[in-house]
Amino acid sequence: MTQQKLEVKNDHFFVRAYITEEDSGDAYDTRFAAININRQQSADTKWFGDYVTGYLISKQLGRSDVDAHNNGRLAADYPVDFYGQFGAATNYGAFNLQGQANTNRFLPGSGEFNNAFTKVKQDGDFATGAKFIDNTKFRHINGNYNFAHLINNWADLQVGGSYRQYELNSNGTIFTDKDGPIKYNEYGAYTQIQKKFADERLKVTASARYDKNEFLDGFVSPRISFGYTLGSARNHNVRFSAQTGFRNPTTQDFFIGLDVGQAILVGGAESNLDRDVRTFATSAQAQSLGLPATSTITGRSAYTNSFSLSSVLAGAPVKKDTELVGAEEIEAYEVGYRGQIGPITLDVSAYWNQYTNFNAAETKVVPLYGQAGDNSLSLLALQNGDYKVYQAYSNTDVPVKSYGLVAGLDTRIAGFDLGVSYTLTELDFNEADYPDFEVGLNTPRDRFKASFGHRELVKNLGFNVNYRYSGSYTWEASFADGEVPAFDVLDASINLKLPEYNSILKFGGSNIAGGDYMTAIGTGMIGSIYYASLNVNF
What is the C-alpha to C-alpha distance for residues 481 and 431, in angstroms, rounded to an integer? Predict the structure, then answer.
């Protein structure tokens, strides 16, 4: 990724222009790499056909499900005469195939495997390859002017604006841009006034902002906040804020068109729905009824011709239409205190948020033929396994609330620095009542941090120790869902000043107590890191 910036400013204004360019380089999808390496050796129709044959014949011979599965794998993976050999065998273990060439799968490390791997990493079509192509660009211009000097500093009065242009360019591997880059624009303007009263103890800030995305209606977001300083030493501060805001859908919310295995993701922009076009094979049962061997489905079906996943899993399919994705709105309140109490600095705040039209993905089941809700052909499609799972980007029509508390304490005792903080985050949304929506808070309820150190325990030598705890939480994302276990991490460092060299030598480690942990599903485990650094001042 590269970013370029141009800025012009003085004491009263600034204008900034940015351009950010993505370059996915050699990135590829590991799942599709594995799938398409196998497809180069054995087509899906052959491999799954051989597996089903092995499984069914084993069941006809009275084998257990485990043995039938293993026999199916052998029939698909090895060049054996299943009818001739397995028909007389008591179970799959009767055959010693370990020394036999596994010609239906490339062996990792072999020349065939490496050649197939190289090929899929260079192919951007997920039907045959795994390469991610992303050359997306983001252009942003914003400016601000402070009029305080023109009104004799009676108040701090600012006016500003911004313009953004997105240019999506993935060649159809991530977005529905096979026919060329997708461009769209956003712009906004704001004004803010800040004034102090009561011997400058009371500070009032009020602002309003207007924003417009070319696909959505414009939004006005008013905000107001109050801060008051108490005490003769002015070292106690209370604050309160009330604000409204919104969040536009992301580029993926609008224009993604990606098969991630567990579901096909389709963005909720109107112009996106008919650009996501996929063709699927139908079952032999469907073809025996005179239905076509293939079915072509557009992303629009996920929004207008589909069942809710929860109803299908419950055995009572219900047609469910999904609205196009829109802006998420928020109403937020915060109250807080920060003060100095002797040697202790205390900072406590609480917040409450209510979301309207919360951005979320809804999981849908699309039949390959029939109209959802027709109570005939579409139900037959479900029965025959002729369906696909989609995720449609939309908004919940149910209010989502969150609230929390942040408390921190810092002090210095006999030269030692001590700090502790606690964060509570709660989400008020009953997912059991709305199982097809994924809110994706992806935040633990409880987080705790503590630090202990000394800048100079002995001459030129200091240290710092940090402890972090995170409670368990549910991770929800389009690529994977799961539970992230609770974890705690201990970091430490030692600093040695070298005055004669104008330098600082630092030794440290992260997660020095060991024990791998993760912060998201699918990102891999995080272990320990140790480092040494030398900072030289010239």
Answer: 14
CA angle 433, 434, 439 (to 5 degrees): 125
- Among candidates 331, 323, 394, 322, which has minimal Cα distance to 359? 394
Residues in contact with 349: Cβ distance below 8 Å, sequence separation at least 6, in sequence order: 239, 334, 335, 336, 337, 405, 406, 407
Rounded Cα gap, residues 366 and 303, in angstroms: 9
Give the long-range contacts of residues 261-264, CB within 8 A, separation 24 or more: 261/31, 262/389, 262/479, 262/480, 263/363, 263/389, 263/390, 263/391, 263/478, 264/302, 264/388, 264/389, 264/390, 264/391
Task: List the beta bridge partners of residue 212.
Answer: 187
Half-sphere exposure of 192 (CA within 13 A, CB side): 16
Given a contact cutoff of 8 angstroms between Cβ atoms, the answer to whether 365 and 297 are in contact is no
Q: Quote the CA–CA distance of 225 and 537 in Å, as a whole number.
A: 42
With CA atoms as reference, report the closest residue to 9 among 153, 137, 160, 152.
160
Burial 31-46 (b: 16+ CB within 10 A, else e): ebbebbbbbbbbeeee
The total of other beta-carbon atoms located within 10 Å of residue 473's CB is 20
At residue 428, φ and ψ (nearest 5 deg) are -105, 85
User: Does residue 25 contact residue 10 with C-beta atoms inside 8 Å?
Assistant: no
Letter string b/e over residues 128-148, b meaning 16 or more CB atoms within 10 A of that residue's CB = ebbbbbbebebbbbbbbebbb
* Separation between Cα atoms, residue 76 and residue 51, nearest integer Å: 5
Alpha-carbon span 102 to 91, nearest angstrom: 19
Cα–Cα dist 506/535, whole Å? 8
Residues (pLDDT < 70) of the chain are: 79-104
Q: Structural domain boundaries of the chain?
A: 1-24+133-223, 30-121, 251-326+362-395, 442-538
Q: What letter does residue 79 receive in the DSSP assignment?
A: -
Contact between residue 283 and residue 293 where contact means Cβ atoms under 8 Å apart: no
Q: DSSP letter string over 132-182?
A: -----EEEEEEEEEE-GGGGTTSSEEEEEEEEEEEEE--TTSSBS-TTS-E
Q: pLDDT tens digits, residue range 238-285?
A: 999 999 999 999 999 999 999 887 899 999 999 999 999 999 999 989
- Bin 525: left if φ > 0, else alpha if -120 < ψ < 50, else beta: beta
Global pTM value:
0.78
Contacts of 273 (CB under 8 A, 6+ apart): 266, 298, 299, 300, 303
pLDDT in tens, 330-383: 999 999 999 999 999 999 999 999 999 999 889 999 999 999 999 889 999 999
Give the DSSP H or E segment for 36: helix 30-41
Q: What is the dihedral of CA 483, 488, 494, 495, to 10 degrees?
A: 60
Residue 488 is which amino acid?
D
Give the number of other CB atoms < 10 A from CB of residue 297: 22
Which run of H or of E encompasses 72? helix 65-77
First to last CA, the chain: 31
Chain centroid to Cα 488, Å, comes to 23
